[in-house]
Design a protein that fits this description.
The chain has about 210 residues and is an all-alpha fold. The chain has a single domain, classed as Alpha Horseshoe (Leucine-rich Repeat Variant), CATH 1.25.10. Strand 1 and strand 2 form a beta hairpin. Helix 2 packs antiparallel against helix 3, helix 3 packs parallel to helix 5 and helix 5 packs parallel to helix 7. InterPro entries: ARM-like, ARM-type_fold, PBS_lyase_HEAT. This is PBS lyase HEAT domain protein repeat-containing protein.
Length: about 210
Amino acid sequence: MKRLLASLLAVLGVGCTDRPHEYTVKSLADYPSPDVPPLDVLLDDLDNGTLEERRNAAYGLGKHDDTNIAPRLISLLFDSDLYVRVYAIQSLRDLKDARATLPLCELLDEPQPEELILSNVTRALAAIGDARAVPTLIKTLDSTDPFTRTNAAYALGEIGDPSAIPALQLLEHDAVVPMRYHDDGGVSGAPAVNANAMKAIAKIRGEIPKIE
């Protein structure tokens, strides 16, 4: 049976903003939380539902604000379906449960992670704010993809650990402006990598507020 909205997958919704580049599914991201099914229904859908129901369940679990479901969501980070994984990441971001930090870092360490995974993981780590993610995020600053570099810089700024400052300073001359052209003709972008890195340093030093 269908619950929540039907998945409109691969809808891209980011322009030039201060927030990290993140792919989201607009229909589900905007779904009103009071209408999310009960927890037991979502858990049953995860185990016995159709692929669409499993995706919707992974999304809906994060709307219950119950940290007891964090281990179940963490187990979904390595699901065979990309979108189940993405919705689990977004739910863990909503819960802000530090138990997800190291498993999320494992996703960044994968040999060829999906762009969809990278963008959502960095935002989740930024929201959780656990300093254990800092070493992995620093390594991610070396990515050949400018979106990934700027997302990692954003996350480091939100976490606020001073140990990240030297690595962020190395991006001072990285003036690449991330741009991505999509099959539907749309374009997404972000400020230059060095601008994001310098802003992250300012956040760590307490010179500008973090994004809530």
